[in-house]
Amino acid sequence: MTNSSPRSLHLISVVVPVYNEASCLEALHARLSAVLDHHPDVQREFIFVDDGSRDGSFDMLVELGRRDPAVKALRFARNFGKESAMAAGLRAAVGDIVVLMDSDLQHPPEVIPQMIERWQDGAQMVIAVRRSRTTDPLGRRLFTRGFYHFFRALCEVDIPEGAGDFRLFDRRVVDAINALPERNRFMKGITSWVGFRQEEIEFEVAERAGGVSSFSTLRLLRYAIDGLSSFSMVPLRVWSLAGVILAGLSGLYGIYILGEVLVLGVRTPGFPTIMVSMLFVSGVQLISLGVIGEYVGRIFTEVKHRPLYLVADEVGFAPPTALPPS
Ligand code: UDP
Ligand code: MG
């Protein structure tokens, strides 16, 4: 599609996961509203998903909802994690396009008009890629870079460098994502996996408007392992290769020892060799068991068929339609 025939845009949904962000919500809502005021003929809905916050974020959302009918909010029964919050938001959104963004204002709302423009030019997913990561500590930057290089090398899906969860989706893409049945959600992988016409734009990531990041090193590591094991079989398969190589090497070593015995006669030292090879092989076995455990664990969570999240409260959504008076 070209500029001359822009797609029709009646309703835009903005989906925001919220976890202990009471200090940011007011400013976020104000800036989002100001940006969308530039599109006066487009209706809007803001879908905030409170992921079990403990700092009064939900009361804040209720208050915003009282002032602005475009505000809708879901409250989870507990903290289910950002991936679940995003999934809930995407399911609740009914817009022709859906913008997904963080609630801490690290994703500046002012980028949204540019994303809409790209969509009108034909893109079905617009990925906002951060120009630099200077707001993150050095250790975390190195870890993230390392992870994405590793991920791209191992997995069938490709994640653009610097791509976060700040994205715009066409309705078709949202429907496709909502139709995926898996419980272990790794949104960055899922969004690449679905394909569609994706385009990237750059933005400068801002400092948090308040509060603190809720991703500790341990939580990031968990996230990395989840992502890898949802989208790659390589960690499972690599062990058969390692086994073949090890078996081959020990076969060669056996031949060598046989030769040695034939030529030099029996010599008994060799305790170190035995110890080293035994320890090495047991280490390899333990690692491979761990990897298999990781995948079995995933199968376990999938077969349990538990819901991704539980909603405790909601505001701003239309009440269930009453039966017409008879
Ligand atoms: N978030 C969430 N549930 C969680 C952790 C985070 O919904 O369990 C939300 C959080 O409110 C924010 C976004 O995910 O909107 C990104 O979180 P954060 O800023 O802590 O991560 P960082 O920017 O440091 O990666
Ligand atoms: Mg953040």
TrEMBL record:
SUPFAM superfamilies: Nucleotide-diphospho-sugar transferases
A Pfam family annotated for this UniProt entry: Glycos_transf_2
Recorded superkingdom: Bacteria
Gene3D superfamilies membership: Spore Coat Polysaccharide Biosynthesis Protein SpsA, Chain A (3.90.550.10)
Gene Ontology cellular component annotations, sorted alphabetically: plasma membrane
GO MF annotation: an example: transferase activity
Residue intervals of the Glycosyltransferase 2-like domain: 13-175
Transmembrane segments: 238-259, 271-296
Keywords assigned by UniProt, alphabetized: Membrane, Transferase, Transmembrane, Transmembrane helix
Protein name: Glycosyl transferase family 2
Species name: Ancylobacter novellus (strain ATCC 8093 / DSM 506 / JCM 20403 / CCM 1077 / IAM 12100 / NBRC 12443 / NCIMB 10456) (Starkeya novella)
